[in-house]
Amino acid sequence: MTETILSPMSLLAELTHRCPLQCPYCSNPIALEPRRNELSTQEWISVLDQASEMGVLQVHFSGGEPMSRPDLPELVRHAVGLGLYTNLITSGVLLNEKTFPALVAAGLDHVQLSFQDVDTANAEHVGGMKGAQARKMEAARLVVADGMPLTLNFVIYRENADRVPQMLDAAVEMGARRVEIAHTQYYGWGLANRAALMPTARQLEQTTQAVEAAREKYAGRLTIDYVTPDYYADRPKPCMGGWGRRFINISPSGRVLPCHAAETIPNVAFPDVRHDTLAHIWRDSPLFTMFRGTDWMPQPCRGCDQREKDWGGCRCQALALAGDAAATDPVCSRAPDHERVVRVLETLPVEPPPFRYRRYARATDEVG
Ligand code: SF4
Ligand code: FES
Predict the structure, then answer these.
(1) Measuring from atom 5 of ligand 1, which residue has the nearest CA?
(2) What confidence tens digit (pLDDT) does each residue in 281-299 have?
(3) What CATH number matches the domain at 10-232, 3.40.50.300, 3.40.30.10, 3.20.20.70, 3.40.50.150?
(4) Which of 51, 264, 295, 354 has the highest CB neighbour count under 10 A?
(5) Could you tell me if the CB of 316 is within 6 A of ligand 2?
């Protein structure tokens, strides 16, 4: 069956891997991109122009910490001028009275602010930065005072899973309109720290109950998005809405990827915006075409009535868990490798091991 190629809808612009925080669940790759390889302002402007011509509607400025790039307001202004909806995905530790006005003036539409925990000591232990929590609270205050829509993002893992009710209360107190209670996804540093981060089945049940209770308590005031850990599901998520269907990810050095973890896929060339156009990469590159649609699917996906709903799950998870990116996502209970997921959960350590913090491999690749 020939696949209809849709236009990408969202672009995730990973401006940099630099970040003042060191979260052990970061989805950035283990080999972080040094500053010297980052795209220039002009190169990012060209990416935005091309994305807009292709029909992209929203751009998410992300990282690392995108506010580490001094040209962020210029890029936001350019995106707004193209009619793109602009979202800033930030840790908030660099968003303050000095830096925020330039983003407001540039026309930024939305801020998504992440928290490591509602408990300050644990949040700063996990993020590896003293004083970060107060800076985040101040960032939230500034965004709300401006009237800009604010979404808070709490990443859930074993050490903070019991505090979901307090997180939701805090989101209301901070004036957020939307909050994401998102269990860690196990890619990049999250995968490296899986044994320390994975919640127990009991914790998952409690977080689900807490979210349901808060949805009633705060109905009409707060929208709660809830992301559960894939490993406890019996059907996979439709990762990225399907490979190469609606989503395009640009890495700090300009690699064009179908998802944030695609750089783990072996034996394929990674296209980049320094050597090819975005439109050509989207349509014809081997990376984007290899798992697009359903023709690549093995059994049982090939004969499954869910194949155009979940698109066979997540390719990067299939690679991480089954050693084959073209395998059925082992999260699916119908997958031949499903036992591997079950084994991960059955062998969770009673005492979580210490974190391996997100760090640059070489001291010369400074993060400031
Ligand atoms: Fe999805 Fe494949 Fe599982 Fe069917 S067999 S539910 S298509 S992952
Ligand atoms: Fe790559 Fe899911 S993260 S396909």
Answers:
(1) 301
(2) 999 999 999 999 999 999 9
(3) 3.20.20.70
(4) 51
(5) yes
